[in-house]
Amino acid sequence: MKSTGLNPMQTFNAFLCGAGNSFACSAARDVAAGVLGSCHPLLIYGGVGVGKTHLLHAVGNERIRINPLALILNFSSEQFMNEMIQALRGNKMDRFRNSIRTVDLLLVDDIQFMAGKEATQEEFFNSIEALQRAGRQVVATCRTMRDRGAVIDEALLSRLCGGVIVRIEAPDQETRLLFLRKKAIEHGLDLSEEVALHFATVTTGDLRRVEGNLVTLKAFAAGSQLEITVDLLRSLLRLE
């Protein structure tokens, strides 16, 4: 087995599916199981903290569970760029390309950071082409196609858009509530239904913010003997 940087905690079982991410979750499961086929790269698109990276790692972890001998590489776009630069400087591009283009599954996170970096985009595009010709799978995540005015190369964008594009929306209240209950148990916090519902209602946005507020609440609770109430929650986190 060959794997690079997969987080074993980020699995499908640990991923909360809701109204805003059910299609993305389904498509990711299909890729992990080999259902979509090699002719379809998968692009997972969405804002900060909505679960793109978790889903990317879940694909890799599930593929390994199904096939422990699967060859998998997982890169952030920065890692991809840095390793390519090192290979160029060391005159080892053939080795770099071979290490990428012989895997069963290539995972690349945050490709929006490749915007404006033509050589990196060209190398990534050629890697996708080579992997597809060999019947292999590519999954990438992206927050936006623009970064300070720079854009993703049209050829690369066209190749990715020729596959399956799934968007993860910001979590709705029901998903935030499920996430909050799960994380409260993990952090050892006993929240009443009233507090949990208010917390999930007023803490909008991404799930990182929900967990960040929960960690703040845990730190306060650990140093005081006060019961966690809605009024305390409002005062401590300045939630309206």
TrEMBL record:
This is Chromosomal replication initiator protein DnaA. GO terms for cellular component: plasma membrane. One of its GO terms (molecular function) is DNA replication origin binding. SUPFAM superfamilies: P-loop containing nucleoside triphosphate hydrolases (SSF52540). CDD domains: AAA. Residues 38-172 form the AAA+ ATPase domain. InterPro entries: AAA+_ATPase, Chromosome_initiator_DnaA-like, DnaA_dom, P-loop_NTPase. The lineage of its organism: Bacteria, Pseudomonadati, Thermodesulfobacteriota, Desulfuromonadia, Geobacterales. Keywords: DNA replication. Belongs to the DnaA family. GO terms for biological process: DNA replication initiation. Gene3D superfamilies: 1.10.8.60, P-loop containing nucleotide triphosphate hydrolases (3.40.50.300). The keyword Ribonucleoprotein does not apply.
